[in-house]
Amino acid sequence: MGNGLVKLDLKDKKILLELDMDARQTYSEIAKKVKMSKQGVEYKINNLIKKKVISKPYPIIHMTKLGYKYCRLVFKFHNLTSEKEKEIIEFIKNHKKIGWALKIEGSYDLGMGIWAKTITEFKDVINEFVYRFGHYIAKRIESIGTKVYHYQTRYLLNKTETREITIKEDVEPEKIDELDQRILRILCKNARTPLIEIAQQLNTSSKVVSYHIKNLEKRKIIEGYRLILNHSLLGYTYYKVLLDLSNLTKENFIAIKNYLKYQPNVLYLIEAIGWKDLDFEMLAESNQEFFSFMKELRLKFPVLVKDHEILILTDTIKVSYLPEI
């Protein structure tokens, strides 16, 4: 397309929906669901990779079951040179405790997700970053996510129903063995890595690898498998909205969460301590569409939604659900 956007047909959209949350599905399994040939599905997926619409399938690991807290940081910088920005990005990519990192437009410039077992460990990561780059930090905010709801990428088909994955802190920690850890590390690099390749890397059998993966899935340590999807190539802007709520009750909190869950453009919903009362991430094809969405939300919950803050997430720097264990 002349505007640099990638146009998807109906089969592309159905394949992306199937891959989302379950990106380890085989070409044959997907083909049956979307009524295509295995070769046709393989061709379309490879074409989407070639066009950079999709990249890096990764496992959603329930890190709180491994004893980790989901800690968050956002920064606003000043006097930042391009060289220093590159240094910050390299620091993030190489840091073993930083799982998520995104570039932001709006009130902040950078957001990070940190896997830490204790608040002290979270503070240590903050200090490490501040000691190194504090001269460039104009503002920062810390928070801890208590529940993160993942919703399917269903906006392309305008579906309201969704598979939901919830990562929450109120679960009992579990232990995994060394082979589990090594398998998870390989899957974090590419969740579609075939069993035989994993087995070869670990000097074991495909049967053993399959058993361990199925066990991790059964125990809900692996909750699913997602893709990094380049929404901007499809003509969408990625928004993060932070809500200030008033007159909050258990009933109206559940009501607004359920309302957002069934909006096709909403991808994530986060409950946290230390920033706003609730935040969510969504996609829109235009500012008009986004502001119409926000108007509807405020009209639906006029007493509850007191104020909101808008951020635009522009680029994914890093995604990993697995720190050094």
In words, what does this structure look like?
- This protein is α+β, with helices and mostly antiparallel strands.
- It has 3 domains: 63-144, Lrp/AsnC effector binding domain/regulation of amino acid metabolism (RAM) domain (Alpha-Beta Plaits, 2-Layer Sandwich); 147-169 and 230-316, 2-Layer Sandwich (Alpha-Beta Plaits), CATH 3.30.70.920; 175-218, Winged helix-like DNA-binding domain superfamily/Winged helix DNA-binding domain (Arc Repressor Mutant, subunit A, Orthogonal Bundle).
- The chain is 36% helix and 30% strand.
- The chain has helices at 10-19, 27-34, 38-50, 82-94, 119-133, 178-189, 195-202, 206-218, 250-261, 287-300; strands at residues 54-61, 69-77, 98-105, 110-116, 137-151, 164-168, 222-229, 237-245, 266-273, 278-284, 305-319.
- Strand 3 and strand 4 form a beta hairpin.
- Helix 1 packs across helix 2 (27-34), helix 2 (27-34) packs across helix 3 (38-50) and helix 7 packs across helix 8 (206-218).
- The N and C termini lie far apart (45 Å).
